[in-house]
Design brief:
Structural class: mainly alpha
Number of domains: 1
Helix content: over 70%
Distance between the termini: 37 Å
Order of helices and strands: HHHH
Radius of gyration: 13 Å
Oligomer: single chain
């Protein structure tokens, strides 16, 4: 059951970051908008992890999913 929850959170983290990556790619690097698009999904991911009861050991996986969404979103739709 925990694996299904983890996979769901990873999928949501990835999907949320696809449009954010696209928006990030269209803004000036290191501007306040750029930072906002990079970090906008973080509170959502944290709330999902805490609500699911998963521990801190899944943070690297969540980070990888978020970065993957950002990169794919910026390269495919830019």
């Amino acid at each position: 059951m925990q694996i299904a929850i983890l996979l769901g959170i990873l999928l949501v983290a990835f999907l949320i970051n696809l449009p954010l990556g696209r928006l990030r790619a269209r803004t000036k690097k290191f501007s306040w908008q750029w930072f906002a698009f990079v970090h906008a999904s973080v509170p959502i991911i944290i709330v999902m992890r805490l609500a699911s009861g998963l521990g801190y050991e899944v943070i690297p996986l969540e980070l990888a999913a978020a970065i993957g969404g950002q990169l794919l979103g910026s390269s495919v739709w830019a």
